[in-house]
Amino acid sequence: MSAAPALAARGLAAGYAGMAAVRGLELEVGAGELVALLGANGAGKTTTVLALAGALAPMAGSVEVGGVATRAPLHQRVRTGTALVTDDRTVFMELTVAENLRVGGVAPAAALALFPELEPHLGRRVGLLSGGQQQMLSLGRALGSEPRILLVDELSLGLAPAIVERLLGAVRAAADRGVAVLVVEQFARSALAVADRALVLSRGEAALAGSGEELLNRIDEVEETYLAA
Prior knowledge:
By secondary structure, the protein is an alpha/beta fold.
């Protein structure tokens, strides 16, 4: 009997003020797997990741963690091994890098093992760092907590391609260590290059699905779904 996926959506519908932004979603992420969730702005990607994380209650369907349906809020899931990294770089701008790690309960050595570029900035206020350094800190703090499930929303937003490659490499390495990773991303080519599997959303529904390699070979079709959104 195969093990239950680390994270799954079953007929998931979620949205705001009674309006569903995503409908009938079926999605699984296994331990050691990186799944990319792709689509144009407004396709329902962020709504999906917030519902999967427990930051947004489902309107219909369910979210399962380890095969068990849950409606636990995000702060409870964090304590049981879920980490969420969002596009607004969830760090405290007035605190230093070291203080941010301490607040997150992460030893600096754990984050620096992933992103040694941060070491010269441990005593620096985060608001003075570049956007890429802030996102390294956010991701390093999340991964330093040794999560079982990592949800990443728009990791690349506003960042240079070289920084995006560095961050996605760290996310891929986390999956290779056994973490179940869902990456929500607008830039399809970058995400597909590191993904085991991918799902493309269009207007709140699944439009395409396949392995990362397969969809990278069908990139024109993937990008057409963005234009149809």
